[in-house]
Specification:
The complex is a heterodimer of chains A (190) and B (145). With 190 residues, chain A is mainly α. Helix content of chain A is 75%, strand content 0%. The longest helix of chain A is centred in the C-terminal third of the chain and has 30 residues. Classes of the chains: A mainly alpha (190), B mainly alpha (145). At the A-B interface, α2, α3, α5, α6 and α8 of A face α1 and α2 of B.
């Protein structure tokens, strides 16, 4: 397992070095490797497929212009997360609107959900979409990217304790919001 | 309604934008490569004389640093001198004020002593008159009349 990870790391390191020297194919490999991460952060934050794709493209374009400053694959991942998070928060502040999901924009799951209630997951996404920007990003980084509080603090340039309290508060808020929504649905039916 | 961390992870599962995404990114990169990089306004202005000046960097930087250092040193010295003069002037003003107050106090004391001396002499005089026998008082009164 460690060997595979080491091989992956070497491959990415090589792609990074070659990209910095202007190799387009190597850069395409870097994009392929990280596109789902960047796109998903943007998509879960903005809840708008086209906006998320546009933002993700801009992030990669910025990466292309900053390749000489990236030192390692780990640095690249961290850089991408930080730039994407900052751009998402800026975009969210500029727009300050509720997401409008057209049918054709609705995300297509890569694979059918093996576990979990689809209704619950949809409600979770909806509740997440109305959270304040920073809280939303903390939850996305925690549960999409599986980062710990210290790593989230590093990406968002926040104190670790603030991340911990934000996470705690946000989960409590989500539980409250979900309970309220389910009650509303029940009242509507019965 | 309760949800677990697994539910959140499931809701926030990564989504792949598809291979078309990479192609679109590469197209944008190619487009960006083809376009000349926008030169910042400041750099445009500074292309001429400033660039030529910048080529003489080491000598100019040393000279500029020396001038700045000398300027700071002179400024610091001037400022300390100014502070010293200002402190001396304030001290002198304070002493002058204290001297004037002392003089005023001494004048007031002298006047008070004089007033007390006058009052004492008047009282002595009245006391002397009061102690004289009644006949002599009458004599004095008649003389006055």
């Amino acid at each position: 397992m460690e060997q595979i990870a080491g091989f992956e790391d070497n491959r990415l390191h090589l792609a990074l070095t070659q990209s910095a020297q202007g190799d387009g194919l190597a850069f395409a490999e870097l994009v392929r490797e990280h596109r789902s991460m960047v796109f998903s952060i943007a998509y879960h934050f903005l809840q708008d497929r086209s906006l998320a794709e546009d933002l993700a493209q801009e992030v990669f374009l910025e990466l292309y212009q900053s390749l000489d400053r990236i030192q390692s694959p780990a640095h690249l991942t961290h850089w991408l997360r930080r730039v994407t998070a900052n751009r998402c928060i800026d975009q969210g502040r500029r727009k300050q609107r509720r997401p409008e999901l057209a049918l054709e924009e609705a995300p297509e799951p890569v694979e059918p959900s093996a576990i979990g209630d689809p209704l619950l997951l949809e409600r979770l996404r909806q509740s997440l979409a109305v959270l304040p920007e920073k809280q939303r990003m903390v939850v996305i980084l925690r549960f999409q990217e599986g980062l710990g509080p210290a790593e989230i603090a590093d990406v968002l340039e926040m104190p670790v304790n603030t991340v911990k309290s934000t996470l705690h508060r946000t989960l409590a808020d989500l539980r409250k919001t979900l309970t309220r929504k389910i009650r509303e649905v029940r009242y509507a039916f019965f | 309604m309760h949800f677990s961390e697994d539910d959140l992870q499931q809701a926030l599962k990564r989504k792949d934008p598809g291979e078309g995404f990479t192609q679109r990114v590469m197209a944008r990169v190619e487009q960006a490569k083809a376009e000349p990089r926008p030169v910042p306004e400041k750099a445009k202005k500074s292309n001429g004389a400033l660039l030529a000046w910048w080529k003489l960097r080491p000598a100019w930087i040393v000279a500029l640093a020396a001038v700045l250092l000398a300027g700071f040193a002179l400024g610091g010295y001037q400022y300390s001198e100014y502070r010293h003069r200002e402190t001396a002037r304030q001290e002198q003003q304070r002493l002058e004020q204290a001297r004037q107050e002392r003089e005023q106090a001494e004048r007031a004391r002298d006047q008070a002593i004089l007033a007390l001396q006058i009052a004492r002499s008047k009282l002595n005089h009245v006391l002397e008159r009061a102690q004289l026998p009644v006949e002599s008082n009458d004599k004095i009164r008649r003389q006055r009349l």
